[in-house]
Structure formats: C-alpha cells, structure tokens
Amino acid sequence: MHTTDTSRHAEFGVFMPVASNGFLFSTTAPRFEPSFGHNRDIARLAEEGGLDFIFWMGKWRGYGGTTGFWDQSLEPLTLATAVAASTERIRLFATVSPLLLHPAVAAKTIATADECSGGRFGINIVTGNTLDEYLQMGLVPEGYDGARYEYADEWCEVVKRLWAEDSVTFDGRFFHLSDCVSRPKPARRPTIVCAGLSDEGLAFTARQADYSFVGNASPAVAKVRELAARAGRGIRVVTNLFVVQDSTDGQARARFDRIRAGLDNEALDNVIAGFTRSDRSSAEFRTHFLRAPDTVGFGTGTTVVGGAETVAERIVAEVVDNDVDSVQFTFPDYLPDLRALCADVLPIVRERLARQGITTGEGGRRG
Question: Which of 240, 261, 305, 348 could form a disulfide with 312 if both were Cys (CB 3.0 to 4.6 A apart)?
C-alpha cells in the first residue's frame, strides 16, 4: 500500500486466515486451525504471485457453533512480524486495537515490527465492532462505546507523535504522558488503515488513516473520499472479495452451493447476536449482509463465483467502476485458490487495467 498520488494504481492483497476456518462458517468448507506455517506459505505464494500486501485481522473471542468459528486465533502483530522474516517484498498489515495497547507500547511494538520487516509494516486500527471480546478482559472504560473514536483519535495522536518527536508530553481525556520517549523511530510513518463503517468510523478514517477498508460497503467509497477531501487529505479505498473460482462458471457455482449447504447457522446467529448487543449504526448493515443468500462467512467481503474470466471481470469492475484502489481476497481453500488466482485471473486483470491507464505491480509500489 502507498500514499495517494495523482495517477491510478491498483493493488492486490490477501486477507489472511488468522482464525479457525478462515472466514467461513460452513461444515462443508475446508476446515483448519490457524498456524504460522500456513500463513507463511500463503505469504510466500502471494509474494511470488506479484501481490502487494497481506493483511491480518485481530480476534480475541470466537463464535462457536458446529464449526467452532474463530474459536482459535493467533495474535496478528506477532504473526505478521514472524512472517516478515519469511518474505522480502510484500507489505504486511496487522490489526491493532487501541483498547489493548497503550499508545507508548504500541508505538515501540509497531516500530519494532517495521524494523524487522525492513520498513514494510502497517497497521489496521479497530475500535471494536463488537465489544464482547474486550469486555471479557475488563478493559472497556465506562462510556467507551459512545466515545470510542475520541479515544482512538487520542491514541493515534500520541502514537504518531512518539514516532516523530524526541519526547511527548500529553494530557488528554484518556491518555497522560510526561516526557515520554520512544526510540528507535520507524524510518517512515507506518501506513494506517481503518475499517470503520459508521458515520463516526468513516470520519475518523478520513482524519487519521491512509486507507479506508470498506469491505463490501460500496456506498462508503464516495463518502470517505469526500470526508478526507474536506480535511485536506487524500485517502485510498480497500475492498474485499471472496473468490470461489473453478474451471467454469458452472463448476464454481456448484462449489459455492456445496459450501452454502453446510452453513453453520448457530455460528451465524452468534455473530449476529454480537451485533445486536451493540447500538452501533453499522450493526444493521452487517446483519443484513450476514443474512444474504450468498453469504457463507464473516469478513469475507463480496462473493464472486465463476471461472477465471468472470472473476477477472468483477475485479476490474471494482477498480474501474466502483473506484476502489485496492482489492484483497479471501478464499475457501487458500493455497490452491490463491495459486489459481495468480495464474489464471490476475494476468487478465492487469492487462485490462493497463488499457484503462491503471498501473499494477511494481513490487508493492510505495509512496
């Protein structure tokens, strides 16, 4: 990922399987528990295939059901730093929750990860789309849900200052630092992503982040760009596609239908119940998405089913018609599916985008 410029450049990445069963709650989908080896192999394959970045969510409590959805998960900062040693070019993004890391600890941890990766590290800031996983730890301050973005704004200000200034004295509502130092500094400020979809979340993203991860919420694209422009900033937009690819459209549809037939409704209901306990404005949108007939998981993004030509056409449409800058992929079975995408789909995509004057590749181009 890179900072905004005047030319159009499209990037491609992988939403990594950091938790049980990736992003699918289905008894008929590939079943696995997360491991370093699996993530390392996916990262290497993505790098060899010319992708630009890999991206990890953070999850601290699963949703059970028959599939044990997300009941096992690896910590993303640690995992991303380990994977950095097994890659050379691809950029790495790990999710960070301001509730879990004091900004002084976060500043040094992220700077360390950035140093370990040779300057390829970035973060995704999540304030908590559900608070259950943080409530179990007793880490949610009173009134947090109504002030989560004020909290995140303070956190970001402190982290950014610690990355840039010799010492920081700060007296805010949530954080208080006196002559606080953090060394070494990152060589360049790590890229910041935010996935907030509420009005507050999009406004925070426009103020603080370099990328807005809108998932499958296409209407958010124009809105976050407008908010960033009002703040005198540019912002790039990331979307997510769940790719079910096969030799033909019909075979891909049959593959998807088999996954859908095994839908773990208990896990699905548990995910939705987590949203129901929150009064966030994005909860209704997320619930509607999870009840849709083409949904077989959480965090998957928009489902794309078809042969190579059909999948390529949809990726191009996301960049050209929906005005997104970056597309990251999830899969039913990561290694073979990513291999097929790199071999059969992305060459078509790159050629068609080039016709539109949109560049790709360049070794994970950075600003």
Answer: 348
DSSP lists the bridge partners of residue 26 as 263
Note whether 103 and 155 are within 8 A (CB): yes
Q: Token pair of 340, please?
A: 């097929």
Rounded Cα distance, 315 and 240, in Å = 10
Identify the CA nearest to 272 among candidates 54, 63, 100, 111: 63
CA angle at 219 for the pair 91 and 69, rounded to the nearest 5°: 60
Distances (CA, A) of 268 to 60, 67, 335: 17, 10, 25
Q: What is the dihedral of CA 215, 330, 13, 94, to 10 degrees?
A: 70
* DSSP summary character for residue 27: T
In degrees, rounded to 5, the angle at the alpha carbon of residue 164 between the alpha carbons of residues 158 and 170 is 30
Question: For 200-234, how does the pLDDT look when each residue is reduced to its tens digit (9 = 90+)?
Answer: 999 999 999 999 998 766 788 999 999 999 999 99
Distances (CA, A) of 223 to 138, 227, 254, 280, 333: 35, 6, 36, 18, 34
Spatial separation of the C-alpha atoms in residues 75 and 203, rounded to whole Å: 28
Closest CA to 342 of 15, 2, 9, 14: 14
Measure the CA–CA gap between 109 and 61, rounded to whole angstroms. Answer: 23
In CATH, the architecture of 11-355 is Alpha-Beta Barrel (3.20)
Q: How does DSSP assign 262-316, residue by residue? A: TB-HHHHHHHHHHHHT---THHHHHHHHHTSTT--BSS--EEEEESHHHHHHHHH
**C-alpha span between 58 and 126 (Å, rounded):** 8
- CA dist., res. 316 & res. 70, Å (int): 31
Hey, what amino acid is at 7? Answer: S
Instruction: Give the pair of three-digit tokens for residue 214.
Output: 């809108």
pLDDT digits (tens, 9 = 90+) for 29-57: 999 999 999 999 999 999 999 999 999 99
- Structure tokens that stand for 166 in this block: 């010799």
